Amino acid sequence: MADVATKAGVSHQTVSRVLNDHPNVRAETRARVLAAIHELGYRRNMVARALVTRHTRTLGVVSFDTTLYGPASTVYGIEQAARSAGYFVSMVSLKTIDTAGVRDALGYLAEQGVDGIVVVAPQRSAAPALADVPTDIPVVAVEGGHSGDVSVVSVDQVHGARLATRHLLDLGHETVWHIGGPPDWLEVEGRIEGWRDVLVAAGRPIPEPLPGDWSPRSGYEAGLRLAAVPGVTAVFVANDQMALGALRAFAERGVRVPEQISIVGFDDIPESEFFTPPLTTVRQDFGAVGRWSIELLLRQMEAGAEWSHERHVVPPRFVARASTAPAHT
Fold it and tell me: Do residues 12 and 116 share a domain?
């Protein structure tokens, strides 16, 4: 910084103000300092900066199975929001979500000196660890249920499932079958709850949900079973990948979609509009989830001990395409 100050003909304090985006620097002075920085090849020493400010400008992220569309998209949204706020991200990806794994990840990130942590916690098994997070570091959970003294950002899974189920009933279908996801996932519970609520309110039969594991293969296997059940005309599937597998099963069994069976997915993955037929689905706004996660985390970091934990729910959006049609009477 001393070399930059000499090169630009300004004081050391002026260089510091430019580097910290202080408003009280004239535009021409700022331009001269930035030119000197570029010419000298100056690079900030983030370690030294952290020692002085006691802030690393780094946020930690704990996630699970980022090969899945939902967790991967959530992490991407968080990373983009953190970068826009001027923070780097240090991530720990766990193979399984359990109490010991989450606690170890939180401890590892705390040792790195991160300023705050976002935990993508879609499974119920993460709840005990979230209820026992370190008190000296801000933490926000994504899809973390009601996790005690932790702020939570989530998509309204129940409302999304209601939108899907109501759409199918409004098309004249007598009832709606459901292909669910892994039972430990909080999202699965919410989608089953919303699906069941609409059927109960409408006084319709409630079929037993078929299990799945988020994979197209599990959707395919469930689809083969449904194709053999007389009278099935509408299916709500807990994610788009399983819906893809079900579409394949129906095609193999000669069941036409949507003429004989209407199908709705969940997530609106980028490929959904290119399925055959294009998939009607429920869109989750992962960008909004990321922005709100970072927003709540930064508020908590600023407020410190005065912070009051809160929950922010992101609304889903229904996307109608060609995989649903009125029921034949």
Answer: no
- The b-or-e profile of 98-120 (16+ CB within 10 A means b, else e) is beebbbebbeebbeebbbbbbbb
The residue segments making up the domain with residue 111 are 56-156+286-314
pLDDT beyond 90 at 321: yes
Question: How many domains are there within the chain?
Answer: 3
What contacts 175, CB < 8 A, 6 or more positions away?
A: 199, 204, 205, 206, 207, 234
In a domain, 152, yes or no: yes
Residues 277 and 297 in one domain: no
Instruction: Read off the pTM.
Output: 0.82
* Span 199-226, pLDDT tens digits: 999 999 999 999 999 999 999 999 999 9
Look at residue 51 and give its three-state secondary structure. Answer: helix
In degrees rounded to 5, what are phi and psi of residue 162? -65, -40
pLDDT at 329: 59
143 contacts 121 by C-beta, under 8 angstroms: yes
Please say whether the beta carbons of 224 and 248 come within 8 A: no
CA quadruple 45, 139, 305, 154: dihedral sign: positive
Q: Determine the Cα–Cα distance for residues 294 and 84; give it in Å rounded to an integer.
A: 10
Using omega within 30 degrees of 0 as the cis cutoff, is the peptide bond preceding 258 cis? yes
116 three-state secondary structure = strand
Distance separating alpha carbons of residues 51 and 90, to the nearest angstrom: 18
Write the Ramachandran bin of 172: left for phi over 0, alpha for psi from -120 to 50, otherwise beta. Answer: left
* Residue 323 covered by a domain: no
Whether 191 maps to a domain, the answer reads yes
Cβ count near 272 (within 10 Å): 22
Closest to 79 (Cα-Cα) out of 56, 55, 61, 104: 61
3-class state of residue 204 by DSSP: coil
The rounded distance, in Å, linking the Cα atoms of 8 and 76 is 39
Q: Is 211 exposed, middle or buried (0-12, 13-18, 19+ CB in 10 A)?
A: middle
